[in-house]
Amino acid sequence: MKVGLFIPCYVDQFYPQIGIASLELLEKFGCEVSFPMDQTCCGQPMANSGYSHLTAGCDTNFVNNFSEFDYVVCPSGSCTMHVKEHLHSKENEAAATHIRNNVYELTEFLTDILKVESIEGNFPYKVGMHQSCHGQRGLKLSQMSELNAAPFSKPNQLLSSIKGLELVSLSRKDECCGFGGTFCVTEEAVSVKMGQDRIEDHKEHHVDYITGGDMSCLMHLEGILRRQKSNIKVIHIAEILNSI
User: Fold this and answer.
1) DSSP-derived 3-state class of residue 58
2) Could you tell me which residue ranges the Cysteine-rich domain spans (predicted)?
């Protein structure tokens, strides 16, 4: 199958190793992966700030770059959800619809499309899983704790097979970290306090690493950890799943 690798702006600019890990991971499972060099922002920051009418150029460019693939895979729940729910094209709506129906977050693609049940890897550390809001409540990557329903977690399912990894059970496992894109700029104090609370939960469980599927959330937590001079590190789930 032909897979187009969609890499979010902040990953491309600040954490390129996540894009590399995603590429290598998909290729391990036999995917023919391409990275369209002309891809740019999907338009989510503008849309979330109330300027969705300015994202037409982003949409057109996205369709031009990804319409030829069977699937589009992204190591980010928030960017995936934006494309899944908001991508349209006046010039080629059929192509936009194809992409919306076939764009997947990385762990979702591994579990739902490739049917991966376990991954060989080695990561001998105590890890806390931060489940981002878009991934959980938008893409349904894991069950919401307030529902009286059977628990599940696609990221945790994959992490459970990694050799040496001890996945802790957090006290408030699906609480928002406070990043929220431009929210962390317009409501800085609230955003920081929410992030501090999330970090405290991980500290109480003595984790070595905080992982997750959205580097934007992890970047927010990483900034707080650095200011606290904490020894806890952040790492994207793709890097753990691609470990040897």
Assistant:
1) helix
2) 3-84, 127-221
Q: Which two tokens stand for residue 78?
A: 């928030």
Cα–Cα distance, 32 to 167 (Å, whole number): 31
pLDDT digits (tens, 9 = 90+) for 24-78: 999 999 999 999 999 999 999 888 888 888 899 999 999 999 999 999 999 999 9
Helix (H, G, I), strand (E, B) or coil at 237: helix
pTM exceeds 0.85: yes
DSSP, residue by residue, 169-219 = --TTTT---S-TTTHHHHTHHHHHHHHHHHHHHHHHTT-SEEEES-HHHHH
How far apart (Å, rounded) are the C-alpha atoms in residues 194 and 187?
A: 11
At residue 128, what are phi and psi to the nearest 5 degrees? -110, 135
Token pair of 87, please?
A: 């991508």
What average pLDDT does range 187-205 have in this prediction? 94
Distance, in Å, from the CA atom of 182 to the CA atom of 204, rounded to the nearest integer, reads 29
Cα separation, 19 vs 14, whole angstroms: 11
- Residues whose CB falls within 8 Å of the CB of residue 123, separated by 6 or more in sequence, listed in order: 162, 163, 164, 165, 240, 243
Show Cβ contacts of residue 71 under 8 Å, excluding neighbours closer than 6 positions: 1, 2, 3, 4, 102, 103, 104, 109, 113
Alpha carbons 23 and 34: distance in angstroms, whole number:
8
Answer with the residue of higher pLDDT: 244 or 119: 119
157 exposed, middle or buried (CB, 10 Å; 0-12, 13-18, 19+)?
A: middle
Quick one: pLDDT at residue 183?
Answer: 83
